Amino acid sequence: MKKYAVIVAGGSGTRMGAASPKQFLLLRGKPVIWHTLRVFLDAFEDLEIILVLPEEYREEGRTIAASTGSAERIRITGGGATRWHSVRNGLGAIPGPVEEPSVIFVHDGVRCLVRTALIRLCYDEAVRCGSAIPVVDCPDSVRLMAAGGGLSEPVDRRRVKLVQTPQTFLSTMIRPAYGMDYQERFTDEATVVEAMGGKLHLVEGERGNIKITTPFDMILAEGVLAARPDPTRRPLP
Amino acid sequence: MKKYAVIVAGGSGTRMGAASPKQFLLLRGKPVIWHTLRVFLDAFEDLEIILVLPEEYREEGRTIAASTGSAERIRITGGGATRWHSVRNGLGAIPGPVEEPSVIFVHDGVRCLVRTALIRLCYDEAVRCGSAIPVVDCPDSVRLMAAGGGLSEPVDRRRVKLVQTPQTFLSTMIRPAYGMDYQERFTDEATVVEAMGGKLHLVEGERGNIKITTPFDMILAEGVLAARPDPTRRPLP
To answer: Least packed by Cβ within 10 Å: which of A54, B53, B79, B212?
Structure first.
C-alpha cells in the first residue's frame, strides 16, 4: 500500500537554550531532522515524506531535504499553532487523491533515533489492524499530580505506557478524524483518532526512540549514533 | 546532620541478557555500582553507605568497595525478596543508635549517573521539609492501561511525574514507616512513608539520572560519562 510520512517539526523549541530550534541542531555533523528523514527514506523505497516546518524555516528545510539525496520524495509545508494544526496541514499536503487508500505515519521530527525496523513493524500492524501506536514501559515509579498542583498520588507503573511515534494509521482512519474541529485534549494523533471512535492498536516501541528536547538528550543521541553500526546510515563526508 | 545512604542493588537482573546482574556490568572499565558509590562518597565527606546486595554477591561487593578507596565508609548487607525487604535490611544495618537524628538517602544502585548536586539538594530539602523525592517531567505522551489489559486511556502528561532516587528522608520519618508490615503497594520508599501519614516533598530531579536496565541504557551511560567533565570522577587507571 502507498506510504506517506508526515514528519512534524513545527516547533521553535526554546528548552534547548540554543540559537536554532532543536530539529536543526547538529548530530554527527548533520541536523537532527536530516537523521529522521534518512531513516524514513530508507524504511521503504516507495514512501513519500511531508515535512512540516515553521514557516520561517522552509528554506532551511529545502537545503536539508536536498542533502538527503532524495529531495524528490520530500514535500515541505508550514506548521500551525499546535501539533494538531501542524498535522492537519501535513495531511492536507499529501499528494494524490484523498480517496486513495494508504498508510500514514505521523512522526516527531526530533525522534531521530527511530529505526527502520520499528517503521516497518508499524506499517504491517496498521495494515492489519488499522492503527499502530508504539509504546514502551516506564522504568521509573510514577506519580500523578492533583489538578490543583501540590499533592500527588502514586500510580502502578505496570499500567503506564509511554507513547512514541510514528503513530501509524490507515488513511481511511486518520483523514476523517482530522475533519473534526480542534479540541484541547488532542495532544497526539491517537487521541484524535480515538475521539472519532477509532480503535487504537498498541505495538512495542523502542527504548532508544527518544525525543530530543534537552541538551542532555543531544549527548545521549551522539552516544547512541556513535555506537550504532546501522547499515541505513550513509557514511558522513 | 549525620548522613547515611542505603544503596539498593539487591536484584539479580535478567533484562540485560548478560552473565552478571546489571549493577556489576562495566562502564568505562568500572562496575556500574562503583560509579554510584563514588558519587555518594564525593557528595559529603561524612556520609556513610550501606550497600544492599544479593547474598551471593557480598564478596564481589567487598572488592568493589575496596576499589573506591573508601571501604571504611561502606557496609554491605544482604538483599531481600522485594525492594521493600532490601531497604528494610539496609535501614537495619545503619550503625549508631536508632534515635540518632540523621538524613537517610535511599538510592537505586543502577542510577549511577546521579550527580553530587542532586544529592546535596535532596539533603537540604529533607532537612527543611522532612523528605525530598526527586521527580522529572515526562517528555512522552502517556496512556494508562485498564486493569484488565487491552484497553488504554490517555492521561494529561503535564500531571505525570517520573520518580527518581535518592528518595531522601529524616530518619525520624523513614524509620517508623519501615516498622509497618509489608504491603504490595510499597513499590518505593515514598509510598511507604506516605502510608504512615508522612508528607512527601517533591524536588526537581535530573534528566540524566536514569536507571540502567537495558543494554540501550549502557550505551547511553557510556556516552554520558564520556561527555561529562565531572570533577567528582577519579581518573581511570
So the answer is: A54
